[in-house]
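#lab-general

N.A. 3:47 PM
ok so I finally got the sequence cleaned up, no stray characters, all 334 residues accounted for. can someone with queue access submit it? mine expired

B.Y. 3:52 PM
send it over

N.A. 3:53 PM
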Amino acid sequence: EPWARAQMVRFAAGLAVMVAIAMIDIRFWRAMAPLAYLGALGLLVLVEFFGVVGMGAQRWIAVGPIQVQPSEIMKVALVMALASFYARLDPARVSRLLWILPPLGLILLPTALVLIQPNLGTAILLVAGGGAVMFLAGVSLWYFGAAVASVVGLVVAVLRSHGTEWQLLHDYQYRRIFTFLDPSQDPLGAGYHITQAKIAMGSGGLTGRGFMQGTQSRLNFLPERHTDFIFTSLAEDFGFVGALALLILLTLVVVFCMVSAMSNRDRFGALLTGGIATMFFLPFAVNMGMVMGMMPVVGVPLPLVSYGGSSMLVLMAAFGLAQSAHVHRPRSRD
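B.Y. 4:20 PM
back already:
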């Protein structure tokens, strides 16, 4: 209490949504892809005017007693839109510059709106997830090489802009970067989260302290133990064995999705499933890297595990789309 019961109810609702979506033919969802994208984009615009502020960011819209996070919806809507675009595009045109611009626009427009909130973690996931769909669609690797070079240049510009009039990030985002590089420089301030996370993970040992017996979690030394840092809480309770088991389960979801995508002869269904697998993989990879000190803290929850309604329901709906693509895929007559 008070998180587990509410999360179980949300999972049950998400499971019903997943089954309902999976039963509908994938051709319907292909037709709905542009509307889903425009709807999610509209919600992101509404956040700027009517959004609910929480933890210093304006990311939610209140719908009665429920708070919806449109950026979570956009993750799936973006994959649907890109998959629909490339399903209709002649494969010979995929790598032509003229046909690179529309998908880039589809990616960068919601990314800019999410950055304004500010929500750097989700913005990075949108760019990475959209880029993954472009890669799966067969876009030339030269474009990705240019993108990597641009990212390196952007990182240099971000670091050099610190403390200047044209500073590119917020102060708290710079603190996260510097804390990642050296958590010990402010162990009771900006470095507190990652320091306590490492202590919690290390204290779990091989088999853990036992369910709900972790001292760092139960004595509230570990911040956000039910959301962003829930993996370290589980690692303290169940140790290396439990953490590895969870990692294997999450990886299996990605593997099953990618196997389904590779065996699907429908281009939209294949790209949609591969994109959903990527959108699921990126948050859990970033979250685990973050809590283990391998990446800066960017506020990305652990899919299916962290407490949160929007993330859970949207992810279950995305799995419903993947299952619809698998169940209704074209079958050979022999």
